Amino acid sequence: MIRTLRAVDFRCFSGLGLEIPEGGAVFTGDNAQGKTSILEAVCVLVRLHSPRTRKVPAMCRMGGAGGFGIAGEAWGQERRVRWQRAFELAVDGEPREGAGSYLSDGGLIVWMGNEDLELVRGAAETRRHYLDFIGSQVEPGYRTALARYRRALKAKNLLLKDLRPREEELRSYEEVMISEGTLLVEARTRLVELISPRAADSQREVSGKEELLGLEYRPAGGHDLRLALEQARDRERRQRQSFVGPHRDDLLLSINGLPAGEFASEGQQRTLALALKLAQGEALAAVRGSLPVYLIDDVFGELDPGRRNAVLRVLPGAAQKWITTTHLGWLNESAGLEGMARFAVKAGSVANAID
Ligand SMILES: Nc1ncnc2c1ncn2[C@@H]1O[C@H](COP(=O)(O)OP(=O)(O)OP(=O)(O)O)[C@@H](O)[C@H]1O
């Protein structure tokens, strides 16, 4: 669990310092005051990843010194870790220095936000990111395989645009795509097996109904990538595109046998998005043996009391939760928020913050 968070020139915060109890904290405030940015800072600190952007410059405070810093301490079951991230921008706005090495033993995070509805309604890419985010936290080598696969795919796609692409060069990129892609497909298969039963339980618990949730992993190249690439080769060369491989995978979601994106009601879709995230938390805890930190952005205010209480019941009581909300009414009616600090966020400053 995270005990301190400090940030400098991050989003709308020139400086931020927070001490957080084991239970976590609730951040209240109007729209556009900085609540989400606090949760984003935690995610960048712990996972080197922002759920809102892939662009480092977007996170640097406008009018700031041209970079940002985030530091924090987390106390695990056995040890205390201290993280520090610093990004500096070069004149052209590109990051000059990364945030140091990626810590594979970084903490575990589950991000829950209203945009999770896109997991159900949106493009396959959103669901691949969902799997990738879990994969990088529980599967050793996942992040590296993904980065290598993406590099090879990018190079192959560039080459395919050439008038006369060199075949042996294309094949050498394909070899990397086959070896790294196979690791990804195997890992994603395991991840979906891990998540499925947990998501189905959460769906039942949160909806309060006997809804049968189905998760089916669809690898775009099947389980034999080499064969699939051979079969697609002519078409790929003709159309100058890469059709086969994990970059085209999907995770099919269904409720009672029907595709959830097209047939489920909005309420069912929201519940399904929550179920996927709750399942993610359980899967991380089961594999890594410690509880994730839950970053819950503006979700509870949007839920009816029945589903809100069900989610609060399903979330592990001992896990640290960081919750943002614009609505205050529900806070005093809900169980499961004991032991959490309360902070009011206004125009990039936080009441009760530390120096
Ligand atoms: N790089 C940046 N520099 C300065 N301000 C920024 C930067 N990026 C975003 N902001 C601003 O920070 C403010 C806070 O945004 P944030 O999303 O954290 O608000 P919020 O309190 O979570 O709002 P909501 O309840 O609407 O989600 C916004 O006004 C946003 O425009």
What does this structure look like?
It is built from ten helices and 14 strands. The protein is α/β, with parallel strands linked by helices. The chain has a domain at 1-107 and 290-355: P-loop containing nucleotide triphosphate hydrolases (Rossmann fold), CATH 3.40.50.300. Helix 5 packs across helix 6. The longest helix has 41 residues, at 167-207. Residues 11-12, 29, 31-37, 58-62, 298, 324, 326 line the site of adenosine-5'-triphosphate. The site of adenosine-5'-triphosphate (ATP) has 18 residues, from helix 1 and helix 2.
SSE ordering: EEEHHEEEEHHHHEHEEHHEHEEE
The multimeric state of the shown protein is: single chain
Fraction of residues in helix: 40-55%
Number of H- or I-type helical stretches: 10
> How large a portion of the residues is in β-strands, by DSSP E?
15-25%
* CATH architecture assignment name of the domain at 1-107 and 290-355: 3-Layer(aba) Sandwich
**First CA to last CA: what distance?**
21 Å
The fold-level CATH name of the domain at 1-107 and 290-355 is: Rossmann fold
Let me know the largest β-sheet: 6 strands, mixed
Bound molecules: adenosine-5'-triphosphate
| C-alpha geometry | globular
CATH class of the domain at 1-107 and 290-355: Alpha Beta
Low-confidence stretches: 91-105
Mean pLDDT: 90
Rg of Cα set: 22 Å
Structural category: alpha/beta
